[in-house]
Amino acid sequence: MGRIIVFANRKGGCGKTTTAVNAAHALTSHGRVLLVDMDAQAHVSIIFASAPHPENTILEVLEGRLALTEAISPSRIAGLELIYSSRNLGAYELGVGPDDEQALVLAEQLIPAQSLYDYIIIDPPPTLGVLMVASLVAAREVFIPMPMHFLAMEGLAEMM
Ligand SMILES: Nc1ncnc2c1ncn2[C@@H]1O[C@H](COP(=O)(O)OP(=O)(O)OP(=O)(O)O)[C@@H](O)[C@H]1O
Ligand SMILES: [Mg+2]
User: Which atom of ligand 1 is nearest to the CA of 39?
Assistant: First the structure.
């Protein structure tokens, strides 16, 4: 069963996406890797595809219109596959609110993918909404990237 890892922090711009993308690339030398973009900013999607994907994204998975395994796309890196984000994730988050059942969708959808990958890495948004909570519920390991300054310590305290 693959390890499910999230790089999360309530603070924005602290290196979550940079760490997720580079860890995902590096881990391809140890096994198959799936990188899941859970952020409406779609930075992972922009890094790999120059633009957010218009369809077959994590949004359709969260809305129950697509199985997670059907939303997997190849990347230009051997051994690394992606689930793209949608710009409409922000509107989705506003619509569902902090609903417990929505927070379970990602965890349930990741179950079949866990036997296909050695590492599943999730890149969440910086806000403590349902997308972040869903990422934390789905993950088994949480890493909190943090620049060494005072306000970042505040974000760490809130995460804990
Ligand atoms: N280890 C690092 N050292 C120096 N700069 C870094 C490091 N990691 C990331 N950065 C830079 O910090 C900026 C923010 O990084 P990144 O987008 O990964 O943060 P993020 O936490 O994902 O942001 P957001 O909260 O908006 O999703 C980028 O310009 C990135 O190049
Ligand atoms: Mg980011």
Answer: 27
Q: How far is the CA of 148 from the centre of ligand 1 (A)?
A: 13
Quick one: three-class SS letters along 21-60?
HHHHHHHCCCCCEEEEECCCCCHHHHHHHCCCCCCCCHHH
Q: What is the pLDDT of residues 53-100, one digit of tens each?
A: 788 999 999 999 999 999 999 999 999 999 999 999 999 988 886 667
Ligand 1 atom 16: residue of nearest CA? 15
CA of 108 to the centre of ligand 2 (A): 23
Residue with tokens 């866990």: 114
Please tell me the residue having the least CA distance from ligand 1 atom 31. 18
Domain segments of the chain: what residues?
3-159
Residue type, 128: L
CATH fold of 3-159: Rossmann fold (3.40.50)
Structure token digits, residue 73: 């796309």
